Structures are given as structure tokens and as C-alpha cells.
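Aim 2 progress update. The chain analyzed this quarter is reproduced below.
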Amino acid sequence: MAEPRSIELQLEVDDDEQLEELESALLKARAAELGEVRRRQVRFTAGYGDATTREVLDDEGRRAQVRYDVLTRLLEALRLAR
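Predicted C-alpha cells:
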């Protein structure tokens, strides 16, 4: 596993509306990733496909989980910045 690293982002927003819409967009993206994680888990646990297909499902589900986790951290950072 790679060493954790910290990144620093700076983003100017014109007003509270833009900040709220940014948060809303991130929440929608995170919800989509959660849906993907759950869909892949159901297909994987239901035994869809052969071993290769199941390996792909597992990998895609893992990557969706990573995206969900990172979006969660980004939303937390955004809320702390408010």
C-alpha cells in the first residue's frame, strides 16, 4: 500500500450559492459511487459470470469504493472549511 499523502487545494467561489452547489454536486457524485458499489456487490455475491467476470466485478467495485471514500473525505474537508 502506498504512503498516505496530503494535497492542498485552493478554490475561489464567488458566493455561498456556488459553495452550496459545489457541495451538492459532490454529494450527487458520492451517491452515484455508492450506488455503483452496492450494485457490484449484489452482482458479485449473487455469483454472476465466470471467474474472469467476477474478478472484473470485484475490481470495479473496489475502485468505486475508493472513489466514494475520497469524495467523502473531500466533503468533510469542504464542511470544515466553511
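The chain has one domain: 19-81. The CA atoms of residues 15 and 27 lie 19 Å apart. These observations will guide the mutagenesis experiments scheduled for the next reporting period.
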